[in-house]
Structures are given as C-alpha cells and as structure tokens.
C-alpha cells in the first residue's frame, strides 16, 4: 500500500550505484577512459600497464559518487515525514509519524499544524464545522481561507466512538495536479453526498484559528495534489558540461586523425626503412607492414590520450567544491536575524551562476515580507506620518490598554489630534474600525487577535485600534468597538462588498444614537467620482497627498461617508431585496442600486499602507537589470497585488512605454490580445520555431498576464506567440498561476531560448519551477522548508541573489573558463610534441619524455598551480563586481569559453609544441659540451624538452592569473622547485642502483643542466612561446578593450560602497489595499457562517442594540487601482473643512 512518505532525493540504497554510474558515464570522457582500459589489457598494443588507467578512473568515479551521495543526502526531505499527529486506532487516539499515514485513516489535526496529506474534512471545533486554513505553500497567499465539512459528518464532532464507527465510502477523481478543483462523492448511511474543493484540506495547508478538526485521508505521499505539482528531480548539468561533451567528441575525432596519420607513416617507414632492420630484429610470423601500422594506431591512441587527461575531471570537481565553500562561508550572505547562512546544496552548478539570463521569482515571501504597515495618512487636508528627523522616538500608545504593542508610528501630531478629540480624526478612525470584514479573536482579556482576510485590511484595523478605536467583536448584525475607552455597538445593516469593477467597499450602520450612516473606502478616483461638490477643495489637497504617497510606492485608499435618511434607506432596502432575487440581469440591477446609494459622499481623507518588500529588493532588481538579466515574477496572487509589487520593486516603472495586459478568457481572446495591432506595432515578429533570439526593441515594455490566460498562451499553437512577445518586454508578471504553470513557463523559455535560467522561491508551490530551471534557489522564509530542500542554493533574503550571481557566479564561471583554457593548452602542448617526435623515431610509438615525467606532469608538476588559479583568481574584487553589473554580461554570451576559444587554444598549443620540439632539437643537433663530450643523446633531449615545456606552461599560467596571492606564488614556484628536486633525485646514481630498469636516466640532469647553452635554449624557447600571447593581449587592450579591461583601468583603488538609499519614484498610479480580498466575504460575515464562538467575557461588557436585518449578497472579489492625474505641488489655502455629524459617546 502506498505510504505518505515523500522524498526529494534522486537515489535510494538500491538505485544509487546503477543510476550514479549511468550519470557519470554520460560524460563521454569517462566512457573513453573505460575504452582505453580495454586497450591497455592487450599486450601487443599497450606499452603501459593497465593499472595506470584503472586507478585514476576508479578514483574519479568514487570521489564523484561520494560527492553526489552527499548532495543527495542533504536534499532528502525528512522534516515532514517525521511530523507527529493523532491517529484513530481503532477506538482511541495514538501518536504516529506522518510518513506512516495510509489512505483511509482518520486523523486529528490541531491548531497551527501542517496538513501533510489530502484530507476530507469530517468535523471541527468551530461553529457550523468550519475550519480556517492558510494556503501559502500552495498559492503564496497568507490570507486565510474557509473550508466547511458536510453536516452529516460534522455531527460526528470529536466523539471517538462515532468516528471509529464511520463507514462511509468516498469515490473521487484520480490523483491530479488541479489545486482549484476536486470532484467526488461520499456514500454514508445510504445517502450520497457531493464533494468539492470546499470540503478538502490539501497537503501544504496550515490549520489556523481552529482548535481541532478530524479528516479522512484521501491521497498520501506522491499522489497528493501538491506533490503532483512538484515535478520530478532531474539530473542538472551545466552548459559547460554539455559543451565539454561536444569538445571531447571533437578531440576524439582529432585524436583519431593524428593516430591515423602516424599509422600511415609507420606503414611507409616499415616498407621503406623497416626491412633494413629485419636482419637483427626479425618480424614475428605474419606481421607485415600493414599489421604493424594497425598496432601502431592503437599504441598512439594510448600515448596521445593526454589530450583528455582523466585528471581534468578530478580538478573540475575540486574547483566546484572549493567555490561552493566560498558561498557557504560568505558572511555578507549571512542573515543574522534568523541565524541563516547561505548554503550551496549542490557542488556541480557553480559556474552556471555566472551565465544566468532569466530569473523566475515568486512574489509572496520572496520579494515581499507579506507584512502590511500603516505608514501615512491624510485627514481633512492634513498629512500625517512624515518623519523629518530620523531620531524621533516612536509614539507611546500606553494611554490605550488595548493597543497592539507591535504597531509602530512616529508622527506624534496624529495621536495628539486623537487625544484632543479632533472630530475629523475621530471620524476617520471610526470608519476604519467599522468598514471591514475582519474577525476578532480574544482568548484572554485585552489580548486581541485579528483574523483579516488580507494583511492590508488587518493593518488598517490595527491602526484604528492603536489610535483608540478598537474593533472588539462582531455578530451577523452588529459591530462592537471601543472608542477612546468606551464600548459602543453599531448595528450592521448592509455590507456592499468589493469586486473588480466597483473597486470600493461600503458598510451601512446605525449608531447607538440611531443615526444611519454609510462608510465607504476604495480607490481614490472611484471615490472622487462620488463625492459631494462641497469637497472639491479638500479633494485637491488630498490628491496632492495621494500623489506623494504613491510616489513612495505606498498603497493608497480614499475614505468617505454620508448620512442616510431612514425613510429612503427602507425603500432602498426593499428594492435591493427585489434585485437580489431577480432571475434576469441581477448583477446589473444590484450595481445600479449600489451606484445610487454611494453618491454625494463626504471626503474624510486617505490612507497609505506599505506592503513591505524584503530589504534591498528594488536595488537588487535594478542591479540585475543592469547585468542584462530579465526577471519574470510568477505568483499565485491576484493581478492587482502583483502589479503593485511590480511597481514597488522597480520591476514595472512609469517610464515604460507601455505595459501590456493579457487577460482573455478564451483562446481566441488571448490570441487576439497577443496579435493585437497595438502589440504588433510595438514589437517586431520573430521567425522560426527552433529558437527565439532577442531582438532590439525601441523603448521599454512590461507584460502582465493572468493565470487563466496563461493556460491558453502555453498551448502548443500559441506558446511561440506568447514567448516572443514576453521576451521583448523588460519585465513579465504572471499572476494567479498554479505551481505546474510556473514550471511550464520555465520549460518554455528553456525550450526556445538558448539561455541559462534560475528560479527562486520560498514555498512548496515553487518547487516545480525550482526543479525545472537550470538553477533552483530556495529562500528560508515563512512558508516552510520544502523549497529549500528541493533547491540547489539557499539563503534567507532575496537581496543575496545579487551577490550570488554578480560575485560568486561570475567568479566561478571566470575561474572555470580560465582553468579549461589553460588545462587544454598545457595538455595539448604536451601531447603535440609526441606527434612531432613520431616523425623522427620511425613512428615507433616511443615517448619523447621520460616515463616518470609523463606520470607526474598532471599529477604533481602542473596540478597545484592551475588549482590555485581556479580557486583564488579574481579579475576584479567583489566590490567592483557589484558596482559594475555589466561585467556579468560576457558570461551570458559565453565569451570566456566556447568552441571558438577552444580552437584558438588548440592553435596556440600547436604553435607552442612546434617551438618546444624543434628549437631544442636544433639547439642540440651536432652539439657538444664545453668539455668536448657529446650531449646530443635521446635522454638529454628528453630532459631539455620537458624542462622547456614546464617553464613555458608556468609562464603562460602567470599571464592567465589576474590576482596573485601568496598561495598562488607558492604553488607556481614550488612546482618548479619540486620538478628540479624530483628530477635530480630520480636521475641520481642511488635510484639507478636500486631499480636500474625504472630509473635509466642516470646522470642526465647533472650532465645537461650545468651547460650554459641548455639554459639559453630554455630561455629562448619560453620567450618564443609567450611572445605571441603578450603581443596579442597588448594590441587587444589598446584597440578593442573588453569591459573587464575598462573597469580595471578605470579603478585605481577600492570603491566606496554606495550608501543604501530608498528608491523614490514619482507615480500617477495609485491603488487600494483591497486587492487581496476573495469574493463573497461580505455575504460570509452577514450570514454568520464565518463567525466564531462569542469572545470571552469582558469586565466592560455591554448589550447589543439594534435589530436584525437581512444580509446583502456580495458582488465579487476585491478591487484594483485606478490611474489619476498628478497636480502640481501647490498649497491650497483656506481649505473648506467638511462638517461632520459626530456621535455622542454613551456607555452601553
């Protein structure tokens, strides 16, 4: 039976060895070395022992396997598997781990517990069997949602015996990834009941404000909807890895050509010259020239195999591991508040961080903190909240025993106005305390907890609470508040709810004195259209304040009210009842009634709420944009909210030529919007379907597309049109998208754009796109750890992405490219000398170097210097990298290592090998020592050639390094010293006497290296090898300098880090806070289904007044913003103050 255990690892105990070996042998070089091993066991071919290949190959495979196993263990998902819960077994509750849950179990959840299986809600502790859940890990929204059990199961309550006897049968849809839909039936007690999404608790939800609930497990483990959206773990390989495979194939082809040329040469030599040696070296039976050439081919395959040395892959793994440690150790990416360091959860993708072109980001918890704060307000023409002096202490709310201690405000003028009983200020906060759909929970006296359907609405009610107007409780027909210490109850007669068209919310209440009033809040332009003419001057001043607030990126809202006539309201209520029960054109009739009553309003003022971004988000996005990195926001939140954040974090800007909105509800509508004349007039169409290249567009554009439109845009027939439009926009925001759609967008860009992608998120709803992107980054946020556990890199704040890419990513890419260029250069040069020597040794497969030099060349003499460069080199330091984001662009264009640079490296090696062979050959031809003895022997030539080679590659390494450290210097000079020490030791008399066959170069070092002409040859050879490099680089810097050259020349000292400043923008765009609302909360409040048990008894208790009324039906979900003009910043003298009918405070 399927269990509820889940994992994010790639391997298990049984699949690790075959899967890991399969993955490693996808590297063509590893397969090549395995082939070499087979050749080396054939004695007629190999002149080297088989263990010379077996040992390094096994070592490489073992080290890589150990590293992969470690990475996989780190990513294994253990947290949720070990959560404990209460399970019904058989007539009692017992504690078990979540991983042991099975379909059909009945389990008990308690408040704040994480739901880790898909459950059918059976019963709960709340009235009408409601539960409140947070779905942040599913859709990124932290506003709570309501689920309700069937009445027939709700009657089971928490009776263990009844629950144990429950024998219902559930038939439902098979496992799927649709988070917004569930279809099924429950058969119980002979009756069949319909099941939908409102009765299901999905894995990823968190139970809130509900003491307990019972649920029946429907799906567990990988069959849950959340895990169906997570996608599969894939083997991620860098673009350099993929390029290496192509280059290795090219090298193999070139190796085959070289071996073929040498084999043909051997055939010619055997035919023309070899017959002369058969007298004293007779051939074996049947071995003619052709067979000799055949054997020679395979012998040279073994000798020339150093063009792809196995040490290359060992070095690559060490470099990646070292650069991963730099990320782990970076204190500038450490978040002290949560004690969270950055973590490289994989060690194989570091250089890919230096090539990112597209970043796909979640919004909630990634860009934002999802914390709304009451920042500023304008009341009756006066602005509050400005802080002229940063040293001003926060306002003391000790006068209010019910104030929220976490609320911070610095403008003392506003609290003084409240204390002085300014009537306009009191009316302002009274509106905020009454006009909302917030629920209050008070478990202990004075300890209020607001259950807001959106965090911004909670911020407004909390602000009213702190300034003395405390929302205390509500019933379906009343709202109880405490006004400056006095409890008052207002009769709630109607809630005119938000929707996308209205962009406002109103409540109609009757005060304790019997006065009827309508309180309204909404988008400023919508409210302005409904104001009384007497408010014109006040409106001008408030507009000036609104422009100022919006320019700071705050979410603004206008407040207004009007007094109602009792007789008129009775007639309006009757007409509303008729309209709400009409069968035809119901919504338009209700709209007309709402329009009728919401006019001739009197303006009170405006609020400004800050949707807190994470620290440094606007600056990070600005820097990444300068690095030519395109950022797409993929969020499950509403369009208006996503747009707001887009403007706040500089993703969308007022300076953009246009922002395209794609919101069609059918394939035809979406296609029409994508093909619209407006879009085509701005954007040039792109031909071809294999790949879409970037085109230059005049101006900057943004694109916003909703989730239902995106579903059509991602269809095969339309995906290219969507992608080519989106790719020409500076920024893209996809809202109301499902986790699977996030992954589909990433896959679409990967499919048609030859670029490297990165996805960053903090919730379980981001796992699918994190796995789909080339690089996945998890943020240790408020939405659990599943995104982190599925990611390749993790840290605590979005701003650290800038340092991860511009510093660590760029350095890792630059170091890896330098390493590969130099490694191929030194090994090609080493190998090509063998090729030239073959023409002078009868193509006999004799090596030009001493066998010990061949063994130690890559292992000892050149290993540490190149590793030192690859671990410590910097073209510019981290401060310059951050200050000049343009330095990142070459990585996106693969300018540092590509096929072109590889072939340039090969040509350079070919030239160097010619110099290294023919110059020593010419220098030693017919040469004698200064004492007259012959020096032109094979051993002396081999020593001279290998010494020249080591000096040449060491000097070349010095030119490659841009940042010399003590470690690098020690490695370079130490390797040369090691060469001479080992050479003199192995060529000594003592070693020859111990093993004559292994150390045959007796006395060669001391006999050759004491001759001046030998050192002159070394100097000339080294100079000729590096002279073209020096000349080329000098001309390049003078005639065509790169961005790196320009920065290094312009900077003579460490730049002063720019002082962080708040980005201030001027905006004509303003928005209300109501975007986060869902449809129908007005109806929910008025119906009483949402209400909890009565609050605890309070010492200042009072009796509710008023009569019950019929609730009014809502009209949809929350509203958006509306653009408005920007007046000049001029003072308007003699503002006409709106007269207000104030309520007399009475004690109930």
Automatic annotation (TrEMBL):
UniProt KW keywords: ATP-binding, Magnesium, Membrane, Metal-binding, Nucleotide-binding, Translocase, Transmembrane, Transmembrane helix
One Pfam assignment: PhoLip_ATPase_C
EC number from the UniProt entry: 7.6.2.1
Localization, UniProt: Membrane
Biased composition (Polar residues): 1101-1112
Residue ranges of domain P-type ATPase C-terminal in the record: 788-1041
Catalytic activity entry: ATP + H2O + phospholipidSide 1 = ADP + phosphate + phospholipidSide 2
Statement: the UniProt record of this protein carries the keyword Transferase: no
Region (Disordered): 1101-1130
Residues involved in ATP binding: 362-364, 457, 498, 521, 555, 635-637, 736, 742, 765-766
One GO biological process term: Golgi organization
InterPro entries: ATPase_P-typ_cyto_dom_N, ATPase_P-typ_P_site, ATPase_P-typ_TM_dom_sf, ATPase_P-typ_transduc_dom_A_sf, HAD-like_sf, HAD_sf, P-type_ATPase_IV, P-type_ATPase_N
PROSITE patterns in UniProt: ATPASE_E1_E2
Protein family per UniProt: Belongs to the cation transport ATPase (P-type) (TC 3.A.3) family. Type IV subfamily.
Protein name according to UniProt: Phospholipid-transporting ATPase
Biological source species: Lates calcarifer (Barramundi)
